[in-house]
Amino acid sequence: MSAAIEPTACATVDGLRLEAELARATDTTSTGAPRAAAVLCHPHPQAGGTMRSIVIGALFDALPEAGVTCLRFNFRGVEGSQGVHDEGRGEVLDAEAAIARLDAEVPPSTPLLLAGWSFGADVALATVVDRVAAWFAVAPPLRSVQDFSRVSRDERHKLLALAEHDEIRSAASVIDETRDWTATDIAVVGGASHFFVGRTDRLVTLAIDEVDRLVG
Questions:
Q1: Which helix (H) or strand (E) holds 68?
Q2: Is the pTM of this model over 0.85?
């Protein structure tokens, strides 16, 4: 059963209203609560990225059926979101606002996965707040944000899903840069480009595996 999509909004600490959508878990625990929750961060706005971009759309469609309540949102300046693009700085505030909005919709004990693709993966990895249980970063260029030192030392789990044939930054280069990161696993998606056309099913599987690890 597909989850109904609920329009909503996130409020940032610097006073912006961000357009967002919520999809509640359709496969829940015996108490009716979701198994987990996930915030989904989209790719670069200046390259056409929105909350409906292919990878974010695939996760948003599939995860509720795996018991995950999802929130996707548009970064500042994108479509119905207020503000202007801020080169990854203000976008961290946007991710924090999305986390707070989703947190209000699920029980406090619900593990929350912060996920993103490309630019959104970089923003996710730069967003280090207590409410996050783990990170799922799809094809992070590790260039959109200047400092990943906090997440690199964090003991919480990080799963990086890289494309074998990434046109933006090679998988080997990301593997080399993150070699010393704490609690970090890497999965290389065979045959995939940065855009994962025809390979989003593998990303869905990886995300569900990470949820299973969180609640296991």
A1: strand 68-73
A2: yes
Tokens of 150: 């906090």
Straight-line distance from the first to the last Cα atom of the chain, in angstroms, rounded to the nearest whole number: 24
Coil, helix or strand at residue 1: coil
pLDDT tens, residue order, the chain (216 aa): 578 999 999 999 999 999 999 999 998 888 889 999 999 999 999 999 999 999 999 999 999 999 999 999 999 999 999 999 999 999 999 999 999 999 999 999 999 999 999 999 999 999 999 999 999 999 999 998 889 999 999 999 999 999 999 999 999 999 999 999 999 999 999 999 999 999 999 999 999 999 999 998
Cβ atoms of 152 and 145 closer than 8 Å: no
At residue 171, the 3 state secondary structure works out as helix
**Is 60 buried (19+), middle (13-18) or exposed (0-12) by CB count in 10 A?**
buried
> Going from the N-terminus, what domains does the chain have, and what CATH number goes with each?
5-215 (3.40.50.1820)
